[in-house]
Amino acid sequence: MTLNIGMFGAGRIGIVHARSIAGNNRSKLVAVTDLVPQAAHSLASEYDAAPMSADEILADSNIDAIVIASSTNTHVDLIEAGINAGKAVFCEKPVDLDLSRAKACLDIVAGQDRPVMIGFNRRFDPNFTTLKSAFDAGEVGKGELLSITSFDPAPPPLDYVKVSGGLFCDMAIHDFDMACWLFDAVPETVNATGACLIDPEIGKAGDIDTAVITLRFDDGRIATIRNSRRAAYGYDQRLELLGERGLLSAGNVLENTVIKSTLDGINSAKPEYFFLERYMRSYGIGWASFVDAVLDGKAIPVSVSDGVNALAIAEAAGLSLAQGRAVELDPILKGVV
């Protein structure tokens, strides 16, 4: 059976997902919609799909699943619309910028049986999955300290910053999900510090561009996350997990594997420039897991609940930054803060 897909959003991330759909022999992109008709037509024509309206996609009984790659403020409404139309749903992160809306969406999803997956693609990076497999197998014993480095090569456009939800909801949210996934738990407290060191205009827009977040789990384990909107040498994505019997590390993926050893020193290539280069494989692997869940009944690897947890951590980080203190996560998840 082939899974017929309707795509919502024909921008940069929609194009990435279209490649993953086309690269899987059990899925086919059949329809595309976008607020910019020309963008929908362009993407649809590349994959022999049809440009349609959102309502047409939802009403088409030949479309089995939808991919939500549109702006974040559309995610919850489209998840609910997709469910109501009887379709499986793959939605880009985050679920929403508003935690209460995301939690309400979780309640709706919990009451139906169609698969709904959130697109935290880094879980599917082969290096990170290998690290987690080694950790889960007990190769370094109990995990004690997790260190996540995530530096972008350059800040995003200011217009994007203003609608992104900020560094915690847009950028660090990937790392919050990674910490929960690797430790198989949500943190007890969140402590964030940050500054605007790169572009004063980001600060004027109410955001930061540099941050360190510490997550403390109820058994004492600690995760530290370092974020920056600028690394002059490229996209820096590294993990270290210290356990009682050793250390697991996942380094950067480089532009090439050539090492130059001369009298002047030893040099290697820079990290791949940005997420489109660094994580393209992970998008395809993640998509395959969604197809397997829909067609074969396998478990959804990233749930709406996972998305809500990451968003709650982002909200706690924002509160911690504003108040200069560690913030307990449980009251935020329960909506009593």
From TrEMBL:
It is an enzyme of class 1 (oxidoreductase). One of its GO terms (biological process) is NADPH regeneration. Pfam families: GFO_IDH_MocA (PF01408), GFO_IDH_MocA_C3 (PF22725). The keyword Phosphoprotein does not apply. Its EC number is 1.1.1.18. Residues 128-248 form the GFO/IDH/MocA-like oxidoreductase domain. Residues 3-120 form the Gfo/Idh/MocA-like oxidoreductase N-terminal domain. Keywords: Oxidoreductase. One of its GO terms (cellular component) is cytoplasm. GO terms for molecular function: inositol 2-dehydrogenase (NAD+) activity; nucleotide binding. This is Myo-inositol 2-dehydrogenase 1.
